[in-house]
Design goal:
CATH topology: FAD/NAD(P)-binding domain
Largest sheet: 5 strands, parallel
Number of helices: 11
Strand content: 15-25%
CATH superfamily: FAD/NAD(P)-binding domain
Strand order of the largest sheet: 8-3-2-12-20
Helix content: 25-40%
CATH class: Alpha Beta
């Protein structure tokens, strides 16, 4: 039995992460009747801190509760949730709860650069965006205000700006200063990383960072932005939030408009909510999965899928890793975990054959990594203590984020093996491969790491043989001008359904080589403005 809710909001937002929160807040502040549906619960920071302290395995997901009705990759009992069917793993972690994955992100808030949106025109690869950088630039600034972004003024290789960052950049740690000096000797450019974290003053009620160096998995004091903060503002403006509501179907009317969303409670009770407009703000795996599950007479291939592009063009920023021991201590683990980035490899004619990349030193506290290594080597007593002291102060780690091109064969679909979660909803099945374009960039990063390590006096460099996932789930509802080869237009409105928008990095036609969250946020506030103007014409 399906129960139709009595309320019929002007706007139903599906997902209470940073994207959905920003759309809902702006719409509610403009006087629209807004209902937010989120598949997970509200989270309590103090409870999560205690859970993290007590965890035997202090992973990125250790603070977060197991949500059995909304499984999360990387969690106990649900870490096989993603069904991997491709030659390469698409290992991702995301949080299905109010606030979404910004609870355990690193708060990196880089802008794309103009050429990132024109790689097909400029370099003959990938896809262009249907909008240009100038169209999104004012919204980048609005997003920076919403998130409270601290960043450097007049930094080279950063996105052009019409306004300064809301907050000054964080000071570099000693490790980052050494990295900057050494990289510049090789002719490269390192700048402070823009981040949604206040460092020297109170901002929007958030305290200054106290330097715990565990921003991932959880900022202990709330200095770092997380999407739940904006959800609370949306509620204060009048939005209604319904938690533990797992949306699994969108109904399409005879005129092509979305008429209702159906969701299940943890007890598998089904409810139905009608609305004038819908924003699908689930993440880049769950959102396309909902669309593909919504097959019906008026959408035989699923919602928004007349182009057969829903779920396709799945991208991430495949990550590289290199490690060495510095002759002198570099003291990782003081301050936030990521404070700088090498940005001079973000663009150039090399992108015709080799992906762009951003390299960054890790300022993680690595005692928890090096201690088991030394124990496994049989060290005990004073020898163990000495090695832990040495390794935790001298080890240098260089991460790389690498651009990936959209490829329709990289895709997510509902499980074809009929594998389901507790509620009977199909699990996501992933088909994924990292191509030579990205691998060429990873090899370049390894070569650069070897040159850089020489300036640290290192004897040898160890490289990851594979790549890591970075939880930047992009491309599966791709943006474009042609309804025949894209899912949404430049406003992120679906070509097929005039009252359905998608607010997610899944709309990105290209991924750049920098983190995706600020661009998600900029598109969200831009979308909210357009929805409000449509609903409340002047």
């Amino acid at each position: 039995m399906t129960t139709t809710l009595p309320q019929s909001p002007e706007l139903c937002v599906i997902g209470a992460g940073v994207a959905g929160a920003l759309v809902a807040k702006r719409a509610a502040e403009a006087g629209m009747r807004v209902t937010i549906l989120d598949c997970g619960p509200r989270l309590d920071r103090a409870e999560m801190l205690e859970r993290f302290r007590q965890a035997a395995n202090q992973s990125l997901m250790a603070p977060y509760p197991v949500v059995e009705h909304a499984p999360q990759p990387g969690m106990p009992r649900t870490d096989d949730y993603l069904v991997q069917k491709g030659p390469d793993p698409y290992d991702q972690q995301y949080i299905r709860a109010v606030g979404g994955t910004t609870w355990h992100w690193g708060a990196a808030t880089w802008r794309f650069i103009p050429n990132d949106m024109r790689i097909k025109s400029l370099y003959g690869v990938g896809r262009d965006w249907p909008i240009g950088y100038d169209e999104i630039e004012p919204w980048y600034y609005q997003a920076e205000l919403e998130l409270g972004v601290a960043g450097p003024d007049d930094a080279p290789f950063d996105g052009p700006r019409s306004q300064p960052y809301p907050l000054p950049a964080a000071p570099l740690s000693y490790l980052d200063q050494v990295f900057k000096n050494n990289a510049e000797q090789l002719g490269e450019v390192v700048i402070p990383a823009p981040q949604a974290r206040n460092h020297s003053q109170i901002w929007d009620g958030r305290p200054p960072c106290c330097g715990n160096a565990n921003c991932m998995p959880l900022c202990p004091i709330g200095a770092q932005y997380s999407g739940n903060m904006t959800v609370e503002k949306a509620e204060a403006a009048g939005a209604e939030l319904i938690t533990n509501a797992v949306v699994h179907f969108l109904e399409v009317g005879d005129d092509g408009r979305i008429v209702a969303a159906r969701y299940l409670t943890p007890q598998a009770e089904e409810f139905r909510i009608e609305a004038e407009r819908f924003v699908l703000a689930a993440n880049g795996i769950e959102g396309p999965k909902i669309m593909l599950m919504s097959t019906q007479d008026n959408a035989p291939e699923g919602v928004g899928n007349s182009s057969d592009m829903v779920g396709r063009n799945l991208m991430d920023h495949p990550g590289s890793g290199s490690r060495w021991y510095s002759a002198e201590p570099v003291w990782p683990g003081r301050g936030p975990m990521i404070l700088s980035g090498l940005v001079s490899m973000r663009d150039g004619d090399f992108r015709r054959t080799t992906a762009a990349r951003k390299l960054q030193p890790s300022n993680f506290n690595i005692v928890g990594w090096v201690t088991p290594e030394a124990i496994d080597e049989g060290l005990t007593g004073e020898a163990l203590r000495e090695q832990v002291r040495y390794r935790s102060t001298h080890r240098m780690i260089l991460w790389g984020l690498h651009e990936q091109l959209p490829d329709p064969s990289n895709r997510i679909v509902p499980s074809t093996d009929k594998l389901t979660d507790k509620l009977g909803i199909p699990r996501p099945e992933i088909h994924y491969r990292v191509d030579d374009y990205t691998w060429a960039s990873i090899r370049e990063a390894h070569r650069f790491a070897e040159r850089l390590a020489e300036l640290y006096g290192a004897d040898e460099v160890e490289h990851d043989t594979g790549f890591s996932g970075n939880n930047h789930i992009m491309g599966a509802t791709i943006m474009g001008e042609d309804p025949g080869d894209s899912v949404v237009d430049g406003d992120c409105r679906t070509h097929d359904h005039p009252n359905l928008w998608i607010s997610s990095s899944s709309t990105f036609p290209s991924g750049s080589s920098v983190n995706s969250t600020l661009t998600i946020a900029a598109l969200a506030v831009r979308m909210a403005d357009k929805i409000v103007r449509q609903a409340r014409p002047q």
